[in-house]
Q: What sequence folds into this?
């Protein structure tokens, strides 16, 4: 299911034996544009430390209750490796290799950096992975940095022939925890129209300038299907959007990659 990041911020986090806090932020990598950690605000429960939850631990997003279920106990989270960092995230968020190795080793999760796919050895995250004590201790497969969604909201969008607006929000797929779209507010360009752009259509990002460069002209983007806050991201809408940019839908790639050897199903339910 597709959800807006700003909608998920503030959702309650329900562990196997009680609530642990609320969603504070998400960190994504700047290669695959995939969520690597949910940042939990635990209130007065675990003060003085930043609690990170891998998508491997995330269960269902329950929109009716504004909750996300966590497949961990409070004791597991309390005893997990501590990232003693509560400093503001600026251009990128640095997590040491030692912490991530300790973190993934503690939970027995497969590492996402060991392999050529989005989730290391797999194209998509595996639900309920078998616990393992074997994991890659080196992060040599690809160089990446983690970015905060809160920080990147507001970045300017640069078309091939000029600026077109800024990032207002992200739309994430809670099955794969991939960022599917950036919501772009063009209020300073034309009549406040909002449009969607896929990270796959990004040419490059200048993190120093807080600017995202895309491969399309302003006129092409202007003629794209409009997105509103009341819109439902139906498959019909997404198909029209991808056809407009002459791009294959991500769900086609998902279905190809998700042949019987992979465990996660690709849903067609879209809400944002």
A:
């Amino acid at each position: 299911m597709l959800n807006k990041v700003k909608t998920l911020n503030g959702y309650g986090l329900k562990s196997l034996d009680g609530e642990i806090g609320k969603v504070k932020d998400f960190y994504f990598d700047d290669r695959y544009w995939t969520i690597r950690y949910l940042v939990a605000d635990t209130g007065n429960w675990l003060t003085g430390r930043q609690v990170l939850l891998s998508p491997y631990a995330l269960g269902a997003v329950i929109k009716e209750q504004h909750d996300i279920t966590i497949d961990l106990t409070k004791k597991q989270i309390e005893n997990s490796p501590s990232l003693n960092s509560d400093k503001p995230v600026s251009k990128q968020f640095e997590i040491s290799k030692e912490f991530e190795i300790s973190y993934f080793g503690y939970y027995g999760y497969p590492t996402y950096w060991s392999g050529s796919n989005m989730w290391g050895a797999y194209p998509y995250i595996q639900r309920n992975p078998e616990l393992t004590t074997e994991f890659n201790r080196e992060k040599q497969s690809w160089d990446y940095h983690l970015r905060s969604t809160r920080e990147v909201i507001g970045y300017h969008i640069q078309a091939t022939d000029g600026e077109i607006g800024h990032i207002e929000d992200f739309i994430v797929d809670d099955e794969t925890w991939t960022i599917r779209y950036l919501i772009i507010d063009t209020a300073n360009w034309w009549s406040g129209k909002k449009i969607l752009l896929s990270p796959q259509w990004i040419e490059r990002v200048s993190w120093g300038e807080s600017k995202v460069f895309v491969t399309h002209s302003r006129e092409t983007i202007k003629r794209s299907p409009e997105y509103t806050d009341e819109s439902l991201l139906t498959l019909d809408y997404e198909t029209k959007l991808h056809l407009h940019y002459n791009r294959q839908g991500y769900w086609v790639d998902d279905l190809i990659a998700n042949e019987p050897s992979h465990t996660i199903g690709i849903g067609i339910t879209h809400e944002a």
Notes: The chain is about 15% helix and 30% strand. The chain has a mean pLDDT of 83. Residues 168 and 185 are 6 Å apart (CA to CA). The domain at 153-256 is CATH 3.90.50.10 (Photosynthetic Reaction Center; Chain H, domain 2).
